[in-house]
Amino acid sequence: MISTMFASDIIAPRPNAPVKHLITALGTSTQQKGNSFVSKIWGNSKEPRPVIYDDYKSVYADKQVDIVYVGTPHSLHRQNCLDAIAAGKHVLCEKPLTINAREAKEVIDAARAKGVALMEAVWTRFFPCVQELQKHLHEHKSIGDIRRAFIEYGAALPISSLGPESRLRDPALGAGALLDIGMYTLMYASVIMGQNLLGTEHPVPEVISAMSITDGIDESNVNVLTYADGTRERVAVCTSTLLSRGPKEFARIEGSEGSITLHTAKGPSCPTSFVLKRGGEETKFAFENPPGTAGFVFEADSFALDVLNGRLENQVMPLDETLRMMALMDGIRDQGGLKYPQDQ
């Protein structure tokens, strides 16, 4: 699903796009699956169709490929990234970059040693809605001093009806609410409370966590992040669940001089607007994606421009931020008693 959305986005016609993307190769398990994928995505598009390989190594060896996009299940990210990096390719890898921080550090160290660009594809950070939200919170101080934030992400998935081999149920594949959708709530907490600081510069919160674990995966989790700020504490309450759909108004931020609510039409990973309330007045800020896209173009453009300009790390999603977030989720899983085979 995610690869379908990503590929559809970057071949969509955009007259004013800052960069032109060309999908030159596709790696899949069979030619039949590859043909079906290409027919579905390209349809009547005039964009050149990619060469279809029935393995991944041929993609890494293809001299026409500059960037490898990894859209496989979580558990495969580590090896996919390491193989692409070893071949000298730049890598844009879906979130989470890996299952845990130890694996993430291995991949990041490999990219830095090879001298190739690497970015975790946390697409939400690149949305204009999130970029403008950060300005209002930390530059314009539109609601004064931030006090509290509540962020929730709910997805109604048929977990109980799926087989144990499903990516959504198998712990070996990184199943569970935290890695799938909970990391978005933690991302928002970072955006709201982090003062625009990332990675090692981001303030370190105290974290209290609780998980509802069934058959080795977390179906729901609650995480309370407390940021000490002098004599005042700021708190972010983050919840995620795979058992029920969350509201369209998925987040509320309270400040000393007002509040902001975040809204979505499709899910918290795709924010579409926020409403600023201050002094009895209410202002709505709404944002639209380029026609025919879901919003993956923002991260794709940013990473492509990094590669074109010789930058090995992205300013919006630097590698130390990926490491910080992976370590944060490792700590949350430790508190909840959730272990994956990759943690051994």
UniProtKB/TrEMBL annotation:
Enzyme Commission number(s) from the entry: 1.1.1.179
Catalytic activity reads: D-xylose + NADP(+) = D-xylono-1,5-lactone + NADPH + H(+)
Gene3D superfamilies per the record?
Answer: Dihydrodipicolinate Reductase, domain 2, NAD(P)-binding Rossmann-like Domain
Question: InterPro entries recorded for this chain?
Answer: Gfo/Idh/MocA-like_OxRdtase_N, Gfo/Idh/MocA_domain, GFO_IDH_MocA-like_dom, NAD(P)-bd_dom_sf
Q: Name one Pfam family in it.
A: GFO_IDH_MocA_C3
The Gfo/Idh/MocA-like oxidoreductase N-terminal domain sits at 24-120
Pinpoint the GFO/IDH/MocA-like oxidoreductase domain residues.
Answer: 135-260
Q: Would the keyword RNA-binding turn up in this protein's UniProt record? A: no
- The answer to whether UniProt assigns keyword Signal to this entry is no
Per its record, what are the GO molecular function terms? Answer: D-xylose 1-dehydrogenase (NADP+) activity; nucleotide binding
Q: What class of enzyme is it?
A: oxidoreductase
Query: Keywords of this protein's UniProt record, alphabetized?
Result: Oxidoreductase
**PANTHER family given in the database record:** OXIDOREDUCTASES, TRANS-1,2-DIHYDROBENZENE-1,2-DIOL DEHYDROGENASE
Which family, according to the similarity comment? Answer: Belongs to the Gfo/Idh/MocA family.
Provide the protein name: D-xylose 1-dehydrogenase (NADP(+), D-xylono-1,5-lactone-forming)
